[in-house]
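Hello, quick one for you while I still have it in my head. My current little project is about how a certain protein chain folds up. You're getting the sequence in one-letter code plus the fold written as tokens. Would you mind checking whether the tokens look sensible for this chain? Here's the protein in full, and shout if anything looks odd to you:
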Amino acid sequence: IKEGMELTLKMLNDVFEKFGIEVVNPEGEKFNPEHHQAMSMQENAELEPNTVMAVMQKGYLLNGRLIRPAMVMVSKAVE
């Protein structure tokens, strides 16, 4: 079953690439309001403020244009 799922995912990614669709998976990057939608903020002393801690839902670009923002959890400074 795992092998079948991996093969299906590879085929889907190949189709995305063929039609100019890019996945936005920004974990560990700085929060960008143009490509990310902040779903929550959490205090974290280990990360710089406004860093994406987790991706709840990946986003997508079509030929460089945003069609769905990535839904993310963003770090904030410890108070």
